[in-house]
Request: fold
Amino acid sequence: MTNVAITGAARGIGYELARQHLAQGDRVFALVRNPGSAEALNRLAAGSGGLLTVHAMDVGDDASVRAGAASTGDGPIDVLYNVAGVTGVVAPELDGADWAVFDDVINIMLKGPLRVLHGFLPRLAPGAKVINISSQLAASTWPYGGFYAYVAAKAGLNRMMRSVAIDLRDRGIVVGNLHPGYVQTDMGGPEADITPEESAAGIRKMAAEWTLERSGDFYKWNGEPHAW
Reply:
């Protein structure tokens, strides 16, 4: 049985990762900011026979991350998915920015995954995987403007996690950065290219196959390397 921890598990890709890992018999720790409002996830947990449990964790808050990680016990974590995120400002930011929103995006999507890693690191043994959900918008090859806070956070995440991968290599811990595809979620919208089910299936396959030799690299959900 694989022990899996997933942030942002209340909906979208995070929820689908939780559902699919549960379906294959894994032990799932589903981490969400507000467990009381995660209705679908709570129903999934209720029918899981204890294989899936829901835990409070706000990745933007140090104390919440520490408490959330502690609430999952002290056993090993085989796969840690950093999924939780926000879109932030989508209006034009060239002539001005809402700095409180900008800072919130950086706090949640850049600092957040590192906080979560800190919380679970003592429980990551050789062979463990840390899979960070990034975005094609993180790449210098992305041919569009806008989304300043979002692209800054995701580009920073990729480069930061490459450094983390280097520092964890001697411990045998694998770190991966993944573009999940253009997915039909609250962020992607109904006209996006693929479903959460398709994205999560690709992410799980990538996580299972990721090797230490590729630790710190950036890939697409379908297994293709992503230029960045």
Q: What stands out?
A: The chain is about 40% helix and 15% strand.
